[in-house]
Amino acid sequence: MKRIHALRRFAERLGPYLLLELLLPGGTLFALLLYLYRNGHFAFLGDARRLAGTVGESLGSELEQLSLALQPAYRWPEIGG
Asked: Which of 50, 49, 14 is nearest to 34 (CA)?
């Protein structure tokens, strides 16, 4: 009886991963990522969103200034007017 309960617990833990692996293309990768996420192996990524936002804002500001600097200093003639 203990073996049946142990097998049932094993199937309950493994079930979502097996379903992902069988039903989705690339399911093995999704199952692995889900396992790592659920077991806290991605905790180091907590500040990644904030860091990415800061980098994106800084880079966007620099690119905006660069695009303004590279604009031509003359106006194109208007057509039909």
From this structure: 14
Q: Are 20 and 27 in contact (CB under 8 A)?
A: yes
Q: Do residues 20 and 30 lie in contact, with contact meaning Cβ atoms separated by under 8 Å?
A: yes
- Please tell me the pTM assigned to this model: 0.41
Domains of the chain: which residue ranges?
A: 1-40, 45-71
- 1: DSSP letter: -
- And the tokens for 12? 């309950």
Report the distance separating Cα 78 and Cα 2, nearest Å. Answer: 86
- Residues 5-64 have pLDDT tens digits of 888 888 778 777 777 788 878 888 888 888 887 877 777 776 777 777 788 888 888 878
